[in-house]
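Summary for the lay section of the report: proteins are chains of building blocks that fold into shapes. Here we show the chain for PKD domain-containing protein and then a coded description of the shape we predicted for it.
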Amino acid sequence: MRPPSRPTFARLIPTRAARFTRFLAGAFLALAACATARAATAADFASRTYTDSSGSTPYRILTPRNYNPAARYPLVMFLHGSGERGTNNTSQLNNNANGALVFVQGPAGSSDTTYETAYPCFMIAPQSTGDWSEAVRRTHLRAIIDGLIAEFSIDPDRIYVTGISMGGAGTWDQLAQNPTRFAAGVPICGWGGGNYAAFKHVPLWVFHSANDPTVGVSGSDDAVNAVRNNGGDPIYSRYATGAHASWTEAYKNPHLVPWVMSQRRGTTPALNPALRIATAQHGATASLSGWASATAAPTALTWVRTDLGSGTGSSATPGTVTGTTDWSASALPLRNGSNTFRIQATGTSFSSLNGGVTTFSDTLVISHTAPTGDTTAPSLALSTPTTSSTYSTATQPLTLTGTASDNTAVTSVTWSSDRTSLTGTTTGTTSWTTPALALMNGANQLTLTARDAAGNIATTTLLVTYTGASPNLPPVVNAGADTSLTLPATLSLTGSAYDDGLPAASTLTTLWSVVSGPGTVTFANELSLSTTASFSAPGTYVLRLTAGDSALAASDDLTVIVSPVGTARIRLDLGDPSTTTTGNWNNLTAIAANTEVANAIDSTGASTGIRIRVSSAFNAVASSGLTGSPLYPDTASRDYFYTQAAATGRLEFTGLRADRRYTLVLYASRTDPGDAVSRVGTFTVGSATTTLDAVGNTTQTATLADLTADGIGKLELAVRAQNTASGYALLGTVELVVTPATPAFSSWIATYFPSSTSDPTITGPEADPDRDGLSNNLEYALATRPDQPSTAWTTGRWTDTATGQSYLTLTFRRALGPTGLAVIAQTSTTLSTWSSATSDVIQQGPAILDPDGLAETVTYRCAQPVTTSPRQFLRAQATTP
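The coded shape description reads as follows.
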């Protein structure tokens, strides 16, 4: 008898062995020995209901036969069609869930345990009263899965969703709403709901009949095309007949269940039908080659470059590929920037009854910069353990060897693994060797890339099927994208951590912590992946999410820029007009001088009166062609303006104010890791300068801080390659952060003595109306009040724990105001000669910014310890405009 679904409730779950009444003991044993197990039926699913303040969702759950908490199991979620809507918690499983119970039965139905034995899994079938896209249903489905993962030993990397008709649309909706949750999806005769770019990486097998009279086939056609246009590679079985009940033949497909059960979240889709781009070379043009599954009986292959609107290679006129199961395509045209190529095969629908075809594909993105001389790509080949593009083994680790050649020289050969997310550089180039590479059970795609000095590239992939036991690997941790906020807001944290389930029976634990920052951070629950954080002071913080599986641990850091009250952020996207960024972004799409955004908006959509203009032209617009930055939307992080060699591009910001401070946060976009050409840019405003490398960049930004506008309210950013002979400087996004500054003295003093502004004995710079020994000028500089006695500073001692030496300290606040306002620390041993040199006086620790951003508290110490120099003095010196 299978165990109860929840130990706190007594449930009778029918056994799936043959049933006997009372016999004599000997006869019973004889009959039991002859009994054969049957596959699961609807009667074996336990009944449950999820309830919260918004309502209830009933669902049925099947626990794997002989459930073992020390093992990890997949979970299949089935979403019913409109005909099964209700609350009886039975209709959704009628007719073997319209064929979906194949996942816990076998090809022959309830008399067949083939799949149940080979792929033991949990299966749930919720029931809805309305559409699956209703907010309450989305929330409940998410909560049901989260609860089951907490209750049972379910592998979060093997959660699958399928549905029919309304449930097919629900499957598309679940993928759109939870793009990182599912390892595969099987929508049948449904329709899509958007957000396709977010889940393009999820393996999909889509089914629909061309003659469906209830849900037109265009519902699946449009969704599949949208995923493909965003770089995904869904499998699409488009039957010629079958009307609305395409699920009948879909769930009978002998390849479907093995295909679904082979998928793991975040890895290359495995098993047939499959198509792979195994090798790629590109210089002036691109050449691709690979293979397609023979079991899918491919009859025709085509190539498409997704940006082409017309002509050969466009979606309207796909280019021809030579071959079928082994194929090649050569002389494919390239443009500067991103080139997305899709190789697509047409094969059998796997249904002799319904006919039709299945289309399946593989996509490759090539980042191309037109070579100025050498246009010949390297050659790259595997030597061991095979010269083929596929390999199967039961042992690991695996070492690859091979060769590479070029008409000039191969500068590097790199490797990557999709299952371990590891990358590295081989030993050697013309004859190369990888380190010993760890393999995970199932499909592992290993990619080798060779580069030459001109930027020409060749790649080859080896699809390794590993049939042995997987090694324990550290958890995969993602703290989320770097972000920013303005006080007093709190930050919502949504991290993720996944593990391979090893060691057996281990529990994955997570912890949020603070790596650095100027103030304190308070987590609502530091042990939860999803929590909130509040910050005591403005500044830059680094938060860390750590996950451990009892043997190994891993972490990921998140940078948070906390701005003071009153801060505004103006975001600028530089790039091609075809990839402008929507929302509260400003877009500059032309590189010529005098193109502009006349009245920039801030991150809330409010007009700022700030003009952003190209004051010196850039060389061109290009695209990285690779995964963009998690910092910004893909459209903002993928393309960029660039300058080349000694050329300098300039952006001008005008309409700025003297009582504001400005920070520029720069992101350069991303180019191919290992790019031999220098992509380090130099960015300068006045005397402030910084650099930023675009090669392999996803999260790195450069900052120019504490900038003030000139006398006419202008800042100008100059962009130039660090290598002025042959390098490039890329600039994809700019954030202009506007922070309040202390107003001019006259405005400041008037806020305290509005009726005495003409009386110099009260409001004059040297007056001391509160008689605390501090003139109004000093009160202004030290951010204290002129209308009540204040303590301007405190003295003390700081002890170096490493040496035991003590140092004299001085702590004070200072206003952050317009140009000309400065407060510095000075030291002396004679009281006649004072020094602010860093060799004599040192700032101790970071400055602590006030929440409103108008002042900061700093501590300085003498450079010499008290024991070395017992006679020493510290003072603060203020300079006011």
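Put simply, here is one thing we learned. Residues 442 and 466 are 5 Å apart (CA to CA).
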